[in-house]
Design goal:
The chain is an all-alpha fold. It folds into two domains: 53 residues, no CATH class; 107 residues, Chitosanase, subunit A, domain 1 (Up-down Bundle), CATH 1.20.141.10. The protein contains seven helices and two strands, in the order αββαααααα. Strands 1-2 form a two-stranded antiparallel ribbon. A hairpin with a 2-residue loop joins strand 1 and strand 2. The radius of gyration is 16 Å and the shape is globular.
Length: 180
């Protein structure tokens, strides 16, 4: 199984199945409760992010293709050390590609422009042998952001569990337990 497939298996396990909870703004095509149509969320793919998609009919294979195209490829997951790729991919799915890219850039010492390109990849490569520190700095920046969200009071414990489990998954999920 390739690195993307393994990372997808971890992330999809956090994202869950079908939900059409009326109180969740992500379930509405307009991105706000009562705005647009209530189409729900499935496999972490929301009506707010994909308003024209038939969410209820979405298959796991279709979700995987969306995750690869819209998240993995945009964070250049194939070019990152596998454990770090998992962390950045999970953040892109949960917090947005631009934020995930900026957190990686800040952790690696690159200018935070929100797009992972050659300069960011070179900064990550320059930190070879410092995988633990790079991963920890990335996760600390993500946790710091999430803890400031107004919804932290309601969802923070679950998000903290997700973030705290990721380093263990990143080290043990990939062959050899390499930490980038």
């Amino acid at each position: 199984m390739d690195v993307f497939a393994r990372a997808f298996a971890v992330v999809i396990g956090e994202e869950g199945g079908w939900s059409a909870e009326r109180a969740d703004p992500g379930n509405w095509t307009g991105g706000a409760v009562g705005s647009g149509a209530l189409r729900g969320t499935k496999f972490g793919i929301s009506a707010a992010a994909y308003p024209t998609l038939d969410i209820a009919a979405l298959t796991l294979a279709e979700a995987q293709a969306i995750y690869r195209r819209d998240y993995w490829d945009r964070v250049r997951g194939d070019e990152l050390p596998p454990p770090l790729a998992l962390l950045v991919f999970d953040a892109a799915v949960n917090n947005g590609v631009g934020r995930a890219a900026r957190w990686l850039q800040l952790a690696a010492g690159a200018a935070p422009d929100g797009v992972i390109g050659p300069v960011t990849l070179a900064a990550v490569a320059a930190r070879a042998g410092e995988g633990d520190a790079l991963c920890a700095e990335f996760l600390a920046r993500r946790m710091d952001f999430m803890a400031t969200l107004p919804t932290w009071r309601s969802f923070g414990l679950g998000w903290a569990r997700r973030l705290c489990a990721l380093p263990y998954r990143s080290m043990t999920f990939f062959e050899g337990g390499s930490n980038g």
